Amino acid sequence: MRGPPPVPEVCTPDAVALIQAMRTLESEIARIPSSEPFQLYQSLHEASAQMLPTDAFYICLYAAHEQRLFFPYNFDGQLYDGPVNIPLGNGPTSWVVRNREPFVLECDDRRVQDGGVSFGDSERCSQSAIHVPIMRWSGDSLYGVLSAQSYTPGVYGAFAVAYLQWLADRAGAAMDRTHNESDLRRQLAASEDLAADRWRQAIDMSDSFVCTLREIGAQAEMVRSLSSDAAEPLKRAAQKLAQCCYRAQTEASMFPLTGKSSSSSAQSLEASAIGSLTEREREVLGLLALGRTNRQIADELYVSADAVKFHCRNIFQKLNITSRHQTASIVAKLNARSPR
Questions:
Q1: What is the CB neighbour count within 10 angstroms for residue 188?
Q2: How far apart are CA 67 and CA 75, in angstroms?
Q3: Please, which domain of life does this record's source organism belong to (predicted)?
């Protein structure tokens, strides 16, 4: 069993204050209940933003038996970008999963960073990014990946990498605690025993619930933005509702990893991957295959760019793809099917 990693070395006048702050943070993370994953992710996010330029932040969990990446927590600025799950691909998260070491955009291959699935502001690309592995303390297996990103180039140095890895190690310790309390490892083992159709059903149920929560959260954010100063209680209530939706989305997105039995009222989706696409998703898929950008698709379909991004995410999940380049061959299969 590996011991606690050392506090990153710093050469600043207030290094002692920094170390004290990190030790306080470590104690706070250790007190977070294992039943509150959103609180853990939020604390890690805040800790990153306190020390590093953090325009975007995500947590990813890796399901090794399915080679699938689950992103239960994604933030771009103040925007909570709902959970998503995708197969292992060619982006930086997949690179970290395969290599078990940090990937730093400052000095590593830009093609790896661009090979991932974007989140948040689809019109901008991160210019600086650190992706670090979340490892188990009691072995060499991997829980997932933690990442901080910035729209400003050249902002991350050696301390930033060491500090973010230190945060990832704190996350690993918290997940070990969950594991030791007969949660995480048992849940992952249980999910390995699920038949393929039940695994797919779990993902579909999770996605459906997350979509509903996303709509509620968006409405809450709209109410909060419209509330005047005279309606401060309403504004606070809307903000609390939005936070509850974010938390529920994070927890719902992790359902396929928990192996918990579903409600008896839930129904399994029997349609094939292509057949499961909605009419709007088919329209978006066709335009993706033609090489259209999100903005061009939004203009052609008279919808918002956020709506297009939402449809693209659903398409990628349902069709188990990671790149727009894969859509052309899929459209040929779609055109060969009888219209519904």
A1: 20
A2: 23
A3: Bacteria
**Residue ranges with strand state E in 46-189:** 56-63, 68-76, 79-80, 84-87, 103-104, 128-135, 142-150
Report how many domains make up the chain.
Answer: 3
Do 164 and 22 share a structural domain?
yes
Q: Which of 189, 221, 246 is the last residue of a domain?
A: 189
* CB contact at 8 A, 147 and 168: no
Helix (H, G, I), strand (E, B) or coil at 39: helix
CA separation (Å) from 21 to 14, 17, 50, 111, 170?
Answer: 11, 6, 10, 36, 14
Cα–Cα separations (whole angstroms), residue 202 to 43, 274, 311:
28, 18, 20
Residue 232: give the domain boundaries: 194-258
Cβ neighbours for 59, distance < 8 A, ≥ 6 positions apart: 41, 44, 71, 72, 73, 74, 134, 144, 145, 146, 171
Model-wide pTM > 0.90: no
**210 in the same domain as 83:** no
One domain for residues 32 and 172: yes
Residue 338: pLDDT band with limits 50, 70, 90: very low
Q: What does the pLDDT look like over 29-40, one tens digit per residue?
A: 888 887 788 889
SS3 300: helix
- Partners of 103 in beta bridges: 131
For position 211, what pLDDT does the model report? Answer: 63
CATH code assigned at 40 = 3.30.450.40
Residue with structure tokens 């303390």?
A: 137
70 by DSSP, 3-state: which?
strand
Phi then psi for 226, rounded to 5 degrees? -90, -15
Buried b (16+ CB within 10 A) or exposed e, 237-267: ebeebbeebbbbbbbbbbbbbbbeeeeeeee
CA distance 28 to 259: 29
Go through the chain and tell me how many residues it has. 340
